[in-house]
Amino acid sequence: MPGSDVAGVVAAVGSDVTGLAPGDEVYGELAGYRGGLAEYVATPPDLLARKPAELSFTDAAAIPQAGCIAWRAVHETGKVRPGDKGLVNGAGGAGGAFVVGLAKHAGAEVTAVDRAEKADHLRRVGADRTVACETEDWATHPDHRERYDLIVDLVARRSPYRVHRALRPGGAYYVVGGLTRTLLATLAAGPAIRWLTGKRVRVLVVPQSRDDLVAVTRLVTTSAVVPAIDHVHPFDDVPRAFRRLASGANRGKIVVEVAAGHADRPGGPGPTRPPRA
Ligand SMILES: NC(=O)c1ccc[n+]([C@@H]2O[C@H](COP(=O)([O-])OP(=O)(O)OC[C@H]3O[C@@H](n4cnc5c(N)ncnc54)[C@H](OP(=O)(O)O)[C@@H]3O)[C@@H](O)[C@H]2O)c1
Enoyl reductase (ER) domain spans which residues (predicted)? Predict the structure, then answer.
């Protein structure tokens, strides 16, 4: 069953679980990135974090995977500094919007690449410049040559030997998602590119981490970044939610609400909700 991210209320805990109890409000990513589209989920407790009271269940459900990718890309691994120039490829999806928001908050100037029709959305999530992927190839266009300190690619399909041209000396390109053959080519070519150019061209492995989740959530609760949420759908409406996702029309996360008005009751036990479609 799909759905990697959940937010809800603990209904029951195993006899050896400490630190969580029925009624606790929690959110997080499910092990194996699956199973969230359900009234109840069973999950090891170590990936769940306590939901801050000021965070809605809807926002909490939209953070885990996208937020943790962005946290790794911008802070843990990418180490963006004020004044850096960043490019996010595939910035119109949930992960990309979070990367744009975090990079902006870290003080970077951000170029966001996606389909032309998403340009307004990209500016709304914080991009300084937008590039339409249908008409401009940032990897070869002279305007982008040796421009970026950090490139985060959520839809990688270019040869690793092309993408590094857009990096400044010492810059880093991280693949987060994309074609399997491109991920494998990036893994294989990265060390040689580093040796030849001094630039880092790598696959970014994003572990499922409660610490990362808590860290990125702090930026949401202090309003430094806002999760991009496209629509909140009731559980009965999941087929329509998937059609929207498959069409590419969504601008950010689609959240599915399993039991409106039930799990929101503070402290009251209820089903886990709402997973990401
Ligand atoms: N590395 C790790 O450890 C790790 C961990 C978890 C997840 N992931 C991966 O991270 C990615 C998450 O990304 P996401 O959820 O943000 O994906 P997403 O929602 O599918 O967003 C991708 C965006 O890129 C756009 N796009 C499509 N083709 C493009 C092109 N040629 N150039 C520029 N933009 C293009 C898409 O537009 P349309 O929708 O209109 O096509 C969409 O707006 C997934 O691939 C997932 O597998 C990686």
Answer: 1-256
Of residues 136, 141, 132, 33, the one with CA closest to residue 91:
132
Q: Whose CA is nearest to atom 11 of ligand 1?
A: 177
Residue 188 lies in a domain: yes
- Please tell me whether residues 199 and 243 are part of one structural domain: no
C-beta of 267 in contact with ligand 1 (< 6 A)? no
Which among 236, 220, 227, 230 is positioned nearest to 255, based on CA atoms?
230
**Domains of the chain: total:** 2
Residue 127: predicted pLDDT? 98
**Nearest atom (ligand 1) to Cα of 33:** 6
For ligand 1, the distance from its centroid to the CA atom of residue 154, given in whole angstroms, is 4
Residue 94 above 80 pLDDT?
yes
234 and 199 within one domain: no
The predicted model scores a pTM of 0.90
Model confidence at 266, pLDDT cuts 50, 70, 90, reads very low
- Whether residue 77 has its Cβ less than 6 Å from ligand 1: no
For residue 42, what is the domain's CATH number?
3.90.180.10
Nearest atom, ligand 1, residue 245 CA = 39
Helix (H, G, I), strand (E, B) or coil at 131: strand
Is the bond leading into 191 cis (omega within 30 degrees of zero)? no
Mutation test of ligand 1: which of 87, 155, 174, 183 has the most ligand atoms closer than 8 Å to its C-beta?
A: 155
Are 262 and 255 in contact, with CB atoms under 8 Å apart? Answer: no
User: Is 206 touching ligand 1 by the criterion CB < 6 Å?
Assistant: yes
Question: Band of the pLDDT at 277, cuts 50, 70, 90?
Answer: very low
* Distance separating alpha carbons of residues 182 and 176, to the nearest angstrom: 11
